[in-house]
Structure prediction request, 199 residues.
Amino acid sequence: MTAPSRVVGTDAAGLEAAAAALRAGAPIVVPTDTVYGLAVIAGDPAALERLFELKRRPRERSIAVLVADRAQAESLAAFTPGAIEAGDAHWPGALTLVVDRHDHIDASVGRDDGTVGVRCPGHDFVRALANEVGPLATTSANLSGEATPEEAVAAAEALDGDVAVIVDGGVCRGTASTVARIAEDGLVTVFRQGEVELV
Prediction:
């Protein structure tokens, strides 16, 4: 892999550079409250395709979406009362809620069954970035099935190709988010147990 073209910090200049790259359709590496992530603007099919290529991720494995707040989350999907309660209790934080995608949202966001995993992360920079450009389709910055490096440049170098911008937020050594769906009747299904305990 050739050297990344640009490494920025989590200051205002870094936010501007990251937002510009995303708007141009380029994947970027960003710090989150869990691990380093590989991100594109949700609903940009070409950028999402590049994300899958960089990660060598099977197409049938869906990508979660990071949002600035619950209002932005609800612009993407319908939340059950239980999901709203869980989001209010654990957001910002390490809880990904699997919810029903709105019909007007591009099918490239989420799964073929009409659901999408949504999370409001406990990281100021990522929330500011989502507030700036919209929801972010984000997955861990590593090749599929491998560990995610804890440092920004190493995370980018682990990918199968270059990203436009690497946002260096220091060491990211968090626990993966809990992934869960909460039905209308309140039934909780946990797909991945992470930091947040729901049941």
